[in-house]
Design a protein that fits this description.
The structure is a homodimer. Chain A is an alpha+beta fold. Chain A has 5 helices and 6 strands. The first copy, chain A, folds into 2 domains: about 80 residues, Arc Repressor Mutant, subunit A, CATH 1.10.10; about 55 residues, 2-Layer Sandwich (Dna Ligase, domain 1). Chains A and B meet through helix 5, strand 5 and strand 6 of A and helix 5, strand 5 and strand 6 of B. Strand 6 of chain A pairs antiparallel with strand 5 of chain B.
DNA sequence: GCTATAATTGCGACTATTCGCAATAGCAAA
DNA sequence: TTTGCTATTGCGAATAGTCGCAATTATAGC
């Protein structure tokens, strides 16, 4: 049972509903990125009392509150991960759809440069970069 | 009438259909980014002989052939622009949805670093970076 | 413990996009 | 110019995600 994140939400004035508890627990259940659909299925194994729209709305809330990150890994649906899992970037191949994880370090100073030059606070903590992996690049 | 891009497609073994001509012309009609829906509406002013799925498929083709770029500007639908319009990056605000254009230069050496370290050919030519604009950042 | 109120949920409709499949039609070769 | 092959299209259904609105409910104040 994850009380830490629930308490953060409560402190920020959000109501703690059974649905939010269920979603949060299901979302924290694995170390990997999860889709809304996966969370929905996990919760449904215990109870019927949940609508998929609520899953999306709760995940949106968690993302805008900075507790989760949403990433497009090119698989057709967005994936979510707790912010505490630490920043890293995703290299997603256009062609074969494979994804590589890379160190956040690569984009760290891009963030500060964008802040200085454009006063824009870029969120690159779980960003996806699309392109072609080694195997799929034309070899000439 | 845009014969240059049509010839490139022909040379690469793709068939030139009336639909592809119409879509290509409509897509090149303005300097700005366009959505599939916009292209579809433009073409429909001339003829009914076009299906929205074909618009999406043709745009996909143009993107995978490197002739167009697809970008998510956070407005709910993807936008497309000819590659020849030149690279630039988009700073998209999570909160107010406003987008700023910035120089490609900012990410130029990130591309080569990713190539060196991960042998991954990153495509950052029209990338969107999400975050908070100056107005929407907490001011403390 | 009750009540009032505003946040949250469920539901059904809607949007953007993709997909499978049968029908159509470019284009290369004869 | 006709033919045949296969790429491409149209269609309708499916998927991921969002939205408006009425019903429900968490929580602050009594």
């Amino acid at each position: 049972m994850n009380t830490i994140l629930l308490n953060i939400l409560r402190q920020r004035g959000y109501r703690i509903t059974p649905q939010r508890e269920l979603i949060l627990n299901a979302a924290m259940q694995s170390q990997a990125h999860v889709t809304a659909e996966t969370i929905f299925e996990r919760v449904q194994q215990h109870t019927q009392a949940l609508n998929i729209a609520t899953v999306y709305r709760t995940l949106d809330l968690l993302v805008t509150e900075g507790l989760f990150r949403r990433t497009d890994l090119g698989g057709g649906s967005m994936v979510y991960a707790p912010t505490e899992h630490g920043p890293h970037i995703h290299l997603v191949c256009y062609k074969c759809q494979q994804t590589l994880e890379a160190e956040y370090q690569l984009v760290a100073n891009l963030t500060s440069e964008i802040q200085q030059r454009h006063h824009f606070s870029a969120d690159l903590h779980h960003v996806s970069i699309f392109g072609l992996c080694a195997n799929c690049q034309p070899s000439n």
